[in-house]
Design goal:
This is F-box domain-containing protein. It comes from Carnegiea gigantea. InterPro entries: F-box-like_dom_sf (IPR036047), F-box_dom (IPR001810), Kelch-typ_b-propeller (IPR015915), Kelch_1 (IPR006652). Keywords: Kelch repeat, Repeat. The chain starts with 33 loop residues before the first helix and ends with a strand. It has 3 domains: 47 residues, no CATH class; 99 residues, no CATH class; 153 residues, Neuraminidase (6 Propeller). By secondary structure, it is mainly beta. A hairpin with a 2-residue loop joins strand 20 and strand 21. It contains 5 helices and 27 strands. Strands 4, 5, 6, 7 and 8 form a 5-stranded antiparallel β-sheet that branches. Strands 3-2-1-27 form a 4-stranded antiparallel β-sheet, with no helix packed on it. A 4-stranded antiparallel β-sheet has the order 9-10-11-12, with no helix packed on it.
């Protein structure tokens, strides 16, 4: 596949979603054997793999290809607990076995049904995710944390009635399953969110009654809790966020204290628990993605250029996008194998996915890719496991 050749060892692939029936080797016990049941329940320790030390057993499980992890999680509670832990991902990273997959949320032509579909860095499809809980929503936020996808808040639509929600759901990419996490303190939609230093931040947006928000909160996965932090200096909505050098950057969108779209960048320092301000942000951003220490944006007013923000010196550079025809073609961004993917919103057959490689030699940065969502792309995330 053009532009997406990886030097990683390709592991055996199989279907992402499948069922498994496991017969464990424990003998049958009748109801008349309470003594046996009591002896088993009183022993809290169960080895991961009988006959092996747990540290060796963990290495063995970490060697399993990503496509087989959901089945592995069905073997036992001990295996499932380990596979969903941060330690599992840490071991796979140390072994150089992390596999990068791209998750694309698409919606049908009528705008009624959406689903997540998955592709690896070789362009292979891995089926669809189980249906996302919480019903049809708009204005929600998505963040990747410790190999898991978080879908946060948003505005639910039911029988023509819209209402903001504070619900948060987590997709475990290892176990191919959804679960519900602690709700946010404030129901909101059209807000900014990002991961910084292992914690998730949600900022601004609209409240349940449609009032613009300046409130912000942070989520700690270890204790499954949202905590309010210092608010923005002004309400802000329709914005986006990203993390650089341990700080949270909020830009784009609109503010009630500015005429039109805001060019201000709000920067939050978690160590100082305070906000500061910059004045050289993008406006009317239609797509954005972070790759390394750089932020890639596309502004509505000029969809033939990439605006690239360098966090090391807070500077912007512009790169022309090789497109023909309408200047309002529009794109959604994705990140895969260290490259930026541009998915055209125009579904004409001649519209190909563009690939930008920031490390390529000058003049050869742009290519096309065969990776393409099946419908209109709403957003994408990249998860390494």
């Amino acid at each position: 596949m053009p532009g997406l050749i990886s030097e990683k060892k390709r592991l055996t692939e199989s279907k992402m979603c499948f069922s498994i029936s496991v017969q464990q080797g424990a003998p049958n016990r009748s109801k008349g054997s309470p003594r046996v049941t009591r002896l088993i329940s009183d022993d809290p320790y169960v080895p991961i793999l009988p006959g092996l030390p747990d540290d060796v057993a963990k290495l063995c499980l970490a060697l399993v290809p990503r496509t087989d992890l959901p089945a592995m999680g069905a073997v036992s509670k001990r295996w499932r607990s380990f596979i969903r832990s941060k330690e599992f991902i840490t071991i796979r990273k140390q072994l150089g076995l992390l596999e990068e997959w791209l998750y694309m949320l698409t919606i049908d032509d009528e705008g009624k049904e959406s689903h997540w579909e998955v592709s690896d860095c070789f362009g292979n499809k891995h089926g669809d995710l189980p249906p996302m809980p919480g019903g049809l929503k708009v204005g929600f936020g998505v963040v990747v944390l410790n190999g898991k996808l978080l879908v946060m808040a948003g505005c639910t639509v039911s029988e023509g009635t819209a209402s903001a929600t504070a619900d948060v759901y987590q997709y475990d990419s290892c176990l191919n399953s959804w679960s519900q996490l602690a709700s946010m303190n404030v129901a909101r939609y059209d807000f900014a969110c990002a991961e910084v230093n292992g914690k998730v931040y949600a900022v601004g947006g609209y409240s349940e009654d449609g009032v613009s928000l300046s409130s912000a909160e942070v989520y700690d996965l270890d204790v499954n809790k949202w905590t309010l932090i210092e608010s923005l200096r002004r309400p802000r909505w329709g914005c986006f966020a990203c993390g650089f050098e341990g700080k949270l950057y909020v830009m784009g969108g609109r503010s009630s204290f500015t005429i039109g779209n805001s060019k201000f960048v709000d920067v939050y320092n978690p160590e100082m628990h305070s906000w500061c301000e910059m004045k050289n942000g993008c406006v009317m951003v239609t797509a954005h993605a972070v790759l390394g220490k750089k932020l890639f944006c596309m502004e509505w007013k000029n969809q033939r250029r990439l605006a690239i923000f360098n966090s090391e010196d807070n500077s912007w550079t512009m790169v022309p996008v090789p497109v023909n025809g309408s200047s309002s073609i529009g794109f959604r961004f994705g990140i895969l194998d260290g490259k930026l993917l541009l998915f055209p919103l125009n579904e004409e057959p001649e519209c190909r996915t563009l690939l930008y490689d920031p490390k390529a030699a000058p003049g050869s940065e742009w290519k096309t890719s065969d990776i393409k969502p099946s419908g209109s792309c709403l957003c994408t995330v990249t998860i390494e496991v």
